[in-house]
Design brief:
four-stranded antiparallel β-sheet, about 10% strand, alpha+beta, about 120 residues
């Protein structure tokens, strides 16, 4: 079974491009968009990676602290990332939990526990 393309694209008449929200959108500022080519690179040629997007989101998070010290940042990041991760993987595998656990690299029991924790259990 071929992987599903989960990226939403909008094709223009001149080129195939998408518009993607920057990390500002994650912080609730919305509206700040950059042009991104379908080949997975920003218009400036830099690769779009999960690592790069995470680093950018964290840079913005720290710059928005205005001198305040964050607490329990590790737990905060995990809570913010896990639920969308589980939603995306479940969508990718059409809700098949065994495949989701396999894709995530966790056992099915852990997956069930996490799905309950985030209200994604669907039972």
């Amino acid at each position: 079974m071929a992987p599903k393309n989960t990226m939403n694209t909008r094709k223009s008449s001149k080129d195939h491009s998408i518009r993607t929200a920057t990390a500002n959108h994650v912080n609730g500022h919305g509206g700040d968009y950059q042009h991104v080519h379908v080949n997975g690179h920003h218009a400036n040629g830099n690769a779009i990676t999960l690592r790069n997007q995470t680093a950018r989101a964290l840079d913005i998070y720290f710059s928005n602290l205005n001198g305040h010290t964050p607490g329990a940042l590790y737990d905060l990041v995990l809570r913010e990332v896990e639920e969308p991760l589980f939603r995306a993987v479940l969508g990718y595998v059409d809700g098949n939990r065994s495949r989701a656990a396999e894709v995530l690299g966790i056992n099915r029991g852990t997956l069930r526990k996490k799905l309950r924790e985030y209200g994604l259990h669907g039972d």
